[in-house]
Amino acid sequence: MSAASPSSRYTSVAIALHWLLALALGAMIALGKNMKTADGLPIEWMYQLHKSIGITILVLVIARLVWRYLNPPPALPGGMTPLEEKAAHYVHIGLYALMVVLPLTGWIMVSVSPFSIATVLYGTIGWPHLAGFSTLALDTKEAFYPQIEEMHAILSWLLIALFVFHVAGAIKHELSDEEGVLKRMIPNLFGETSPPRAPARGAVTAFGSAAAFFGIIAGGPVIAQSFSSAGTGAPAESGVVANWTVDYSASEIAFSGDYNGNPYQGAFSDWTADIAFAPDALETSVVSVSVQTATAATGTSLYDNTLKGAEWFGTSAFPAATVALSSFSETEDGYSATAAITIKELTIEVPFSFTLSIEGDEASMVGTTTLSRSELNLGLQSDPSGDWVADEVVVDVTVKASRTDS
Question: N or C: which terminal CB in the chain sees fewer CB atoms within 10 Å?
Fold first, then answer.
């Protein structure tokens, strides 16, 4: 085999993108066939990784196509028949088209899934659902999802066929008397003495285009949420004349429950409380709490992003949940009250029990209640029977406060 000249070789960028995409496609094929248990249940981390790699392929192929346009590849090896040249040409077109279409159909499939599970790339970066599909009615999603799933599966098999054909063609050209193509895509092998030709132009354009696409999509919900939060302004006046000031650095509203047999815990980082409470005037004591639900944090990005979704807290349309405590009474173990909890314009009343310690002008309160997510219409679209997320959610509240009316 003759050594390829520098002008006949692919650029370093093209080589790197080629092998990154090849590895990504191989991983996608492997994951796609092994994402369910023997009982047919989804393996969550595999699904998330599958989605993460799919979006990575979409981003990388944008860079690859722009680079290919700005830096045309070398000519096909000499000695190829016209039929082989046409086959190679159409296989390349098919591969590039499917590397765009398959991630898009997967994105649509995730967006119309009745389960409404968030996509978190590599467990770190949230990726939004397509708005036009995610907002469809449940019955429409249930009808459309199998169709897009079948289309995605068919296109996957077509990609596998073209992938195999592409590899077979490359091997055939290397073993034949033709010039071959593999040596031009692997630097310094097969006795090569010439490095890949220097990148011609367009690195900023190619990778900038891919980065811009990724940034706009991934950053869009964050920007929208910030504008939504800014638009809400300060919490509405509760009308409660508070006689206690909360030390938020030493206070917490936490929640816990069970997901797929595993316990989870979380807390809200942004909330305010107006407290008008006196042990000797329980009949007139009231507490008003406003919680920014988008600040729910469990330490797992998948859970946090899912909680922001429309079927859970719906933070875009309903940024705050409210709690009104009233009807206080003393018990053997401390105190109890009625908590009227409003989430997404739905209000339920639950008992709230707590212990209270007052020393001078300083007070410490520890309270708890148990909520039913079905009563609050949380996650009922994707898991109405609690097969994945337990219906009961325990809320634990710790408050440190100082008296303001002494």
Answer: C
